[in-house]
Design goal:
- The protein has helices at residues 2-18, 35-44, 93-111; strands spanning 25-26, 29-30, 48-49, 60-64, 70-77, 80-89, 116-120, 124-130, 134-142, 146-154.
- It has 156 residues and is of the alpha+beta class.
- The strands form two sheets. Strands 3-4-5-6-10-9-8-7 form an eight-stranded antiparallel sheet, covered by helices on one side. Strands 1-2 form a two-stranded antiparallel ribbon.
- A hairpin with a 2-residue loop joins β1 (25-26) and β2.
- α1 packs parallel to α3 (93-111).
- The chain is globular and about 40 Å long.
Length: 156
């Protein structure tokens, strides 16, 4: 899991630095792609649309890949991807704390900036990073069920 998150962050930074366009990227895919093209690209990577959790208007789409520990929720408006959220399924609070810290440290290193930290408790942490193309928010909530979310939002 650590390798996946490290590779994701490294690739995001590499793409952001090498591109003149100011767009947010997700695992090498531009979030400026048309929504259906983005969905097709994710399906080519092994993700499938979970029709039971996707709304009928295809405004919010849920995707899953059995090889990953997270599910994706994608939101679109007028055929454009506006947000993407990874929802991790991890069974222990310690695992979510460790993964949150690793991801936060990697984003901090890659972007060369500290995040805005509106919450910084042991069991509830939020780290917000701003890039040229959008915002990345890491949220940890360890209550009865440990949750970790990574939200990518495109700047309008």
């Amino acid at each position: 899991m650590k390798k996946i998150s490290m590779a994701l962050v490294a690739f995001l930074v590499l793409c952001a630095c090498s591109s003149e366009q100011k767009e947010l990227k997700y695992r090498g895919l531009s979030m400026a792609l048309p929504f259906q093209t983005f969905i097709d690209s994710m399906q080519a990577r092994g993700f499938a649309v979970d029709s039971a959790k996707t709304d009928s208007a295809f405004t919010r789409v849920v995707m899953a890949n059995p090889a990953e520990k997270f599910r994706l929720m994608l939101a679109q408006k007028d055929g454009k991807l506006i947000a993407l959220q990874e929802n991790y399924k991890i069974s222990t609070n310690d695992s979510t704390r460790q993964l949150w810290q690793e991801m936060r440290d990697q984003f901090e290193k890659d972007f060369g900036a500290w995040p805005n930290m509106p919450k910084h408790g042991d069991d509830h942490k939020i780290a917000k990073f701003e890039t040229d193309g959008g915002f990345i928010t890491l949220t940890l909530e360890n209550t009865y069920t440990p949750t970790l979310q990574v939200l990518y939002e495109v700047k309008k």
